[in-house]
Amino acid sequence: MANLLSYVLFLVLRTYGAPPEFIQVTPPPENPGNETFTPSLIPPPGTSQHTPHSIIIGVRKGGTRALLEMLDIHPEVAAAATEVHFFDWDENYVKGFDWYREQMPYSFPHQITVEKTPGYFTSPVAPARIHAMNSSIRLLLILRDPTERVISDYTQVYFNRLENHKPVQAIENMLVKNGALNTRYKAIQRSLYDVHMRNWLQHFPLEQIHIVDGDTLINDPLPELQRVERFLDLPPRIVASNFYFNQTKGFYCIRSDGHERCLHESKGRPHPLVNNTVLRQLRLYLRQHNLNFYQLIGRSFNWQ
Using the 8-state DSSP alphabet, how is residue 48 labeled? Predict the structure, then answer.
């Protein structure tokens, strides 16, 4: 009995004293019943898994990871650790909402669950599928200058191919085809914000989609995070001391609960120089799409 009481006390202390979603439980050394125990993971008491209260729907290379990790500072936010790709990948969607919920973190009743999958914004099927799950869900969309987003998109693919020992091409070879701008290039298609936004507005009112300025988030994160707090009806908990500028990396990092952390080294990679003529072609092509987007949302950005 003494061993059993000690084990129970051990569990309580481990559970309430540790912040992770899961607590690893190791059985006591003495086992009077000679039963076989194996370490297991149990969620903290009082927690459960929920489908998200809010989803960061995109955009790819717009700052979704930075937004999620900065938002995760808030004590009333439980953030999914990985991109789930439930609403944009058919092979995941057919697994059903129960499977989707099981991918979410354990959270307490006072917390909201947030996941991010940047592929949702450009998916033709994601808006209707999310609406079918929860028509009143609050959506977060983080955007940056679409020209810079194209270059960042290329940069990610470039380094991924290098790391996997695959051939790479100069960015001009991707942007130009047969002497003209290659508007079918996926990176360009993803930057047509107006085209994708129209799809979302067919299913959700603009009031349910909060747009975060990704360029501002990089340079001055606090005001953008405070706007997100208000949109999600969260009490103000994120403060200036949660951020510090890392001179080596050249962007803001996070300070929370006595710990400091920066985004993965794959973030903030230097962009390649792009031929000026090609760059002008790209900006000219995107300019009308940007104006269309401004009209759709009733707001403008300082995009070139």
Answer: E
At which residue do the structure tokens 């500072």 appear? 73
Cβ neighbours of 239 (radius 10 Å): 11
Distances, alpha carbon 186 to alpha carbons 52, 144, 171, 260, 287, in Å? 28, 17, 13, 36, 17
- Quote the tokens at residue 36: 């076989």
Residue 34 is predicted with a pLDDT of 41
Condensed to tens digits (0 to 9), the pLDDT of residues 98-125 reads: 999 999 999 999 999 999 999 999 999 9
pLDDT level of residue 9 (50, 70, 90 thresholds) = very low
In angstroms, rounded to a whole number, what is the distance separating the alpha carbons of residues 185 and 177? Answer: 9
Q: Could you give the CA distance from residue 73 to residue 239 in angstroms, rounded to a whole number?
A: 10
Q: What is the pLDDT of residue 266?
A: 58
Check the CA dihedral 193-196-201-207 and report its sign: negative
Integer CA distances (angstroms), 83 to 17, 56, 60, 80, in order: 28, 10, 12, 8
Reference 73, options 235, 249, 246; nearest CA is 235
| Tokens 């340079």 sit on residue | 219
| H or E segment and range at residue 41 | strand 40-42
Q: How far apart are the first and last CA of the chain?
A: 72
Distances (CA, A) of 35 to 7, 38, 42, 145, 151: 15, 10, 20, 61, 59
Q: What is the pLDDT of residues 252-300, one digit of tens each?
A: 999 998 889 887 665 667 889 999 999 999 999 999 999 999 999 999 9
Given a cut of 90, whether residue 145 has pLDDT beyond it is yes
- Are 262 and 249 spatial neighbours (Cβ–Cβ below 8 Å)? yes
